[in-house]
Amino acid sequence: MAGFRQRVPAPVDIAMVAHPSVTLLVDLSEGEGLVYDAHGRHGRGSVVVGLHPGELRAGGRVGECLQIRLEPVAAAAVFGASTELSGVVVPLDDVWGPGAGRAEGRLRAAASWDERFAIAVDILGRWLGTRPPVAPEVAHAWRLTLTGRGRVRVERLAEEVGWSRKRLSARFRSQLGITPKHAARLVRFDHAAHLLAAGHAAAGVATESGYVDQSHLHREVKAFTGLTPAAVAAAPWLAIDDVAWPAPSPVWPAPSPVWPASSQARKPPAAIAGARRTSSP
Question: Where is the region Disordered (predicted)?
Fold first, then answer.
């Protein structure tokens, strides 16, 4: 979870980079606020970004925005089985109904980002457990995919949970919205994207991330974002990750990013972060 405050007078246009999570963008702006473009369809206001959304851009005259990333298992616990969210971007109130407007009102009225983070935890906590949980085998397969950076074969996942490949694929898709194979591609892409953003050469990134060659990496990056590896390396959406979602450490660094040139990002303080910050960038 991270908060963004836009301080530039002109509209911005930012390419969002796919992430192995369901993303909530809660628009807390006054006036025009957040606009987005997905698959040639334009929208405005708070949205939920499903897994594997494809080419996606966000921007406008954004005043303030709260971004929350939910790993797929947690997203299913909040929203229910996420098949409908796979590959799509939908308005938040289409998913949460009247609760979306009430949540926005509470968050907008808060006096500080820390208060907003605490409110968000409370809201999500009230939704958790209201939907059927993901099967333990599916949750375990997802976490193996994540920790294995997308390089664990589906057959190995099925063996690990004691299911057939066919059964795992069917249950995985019905509960998390994507197949285990596509989940592995997304996690592997995420690892590669962060290596590119850290300044590593594409050829080395392809090898380290498990791609056949640099051309394979290029095709996957294009498929997930519509961008080239060079464009992903410079994407401001990744530039704030080390601050907003730092790697676990005894002491978190103080937030001080610039994203984009004249905006500020805030992450939850350590005192309340443990309940809901992601452990991966």
Answer: 255-281
Does CATH number 3.30.428.10 belong to domain 136-234? no
100 to 82, 92, 96, 127, 151: CA distances (angstroms): 17, 6, 5, 12, 37
Model confidence pLDDT, tens digit, residues 211-220: 999 999 999 9
> Model-level pTM?
0.79
> Residue 27: beta bridge partners?
65
Are the CB atoms for 150 and 187 separated by under 8 Å? yes
Side-by-side strand order, sheet with 2-5: 89-91, 47-49, 22-27, 64-70, 2-5, 264-266
Tokens standing for 153? 């074969």
Residue 56 three-state SS: strand
In sequence order, what are the residues at sequence separation of 6 or more whose Cβ sits closer than 8 angstroms to the Cβ of residue 122?
none
Q: Answer yes or no: are the C-beta atoms of 185 and 220 closer than 8 Å.
A: yes
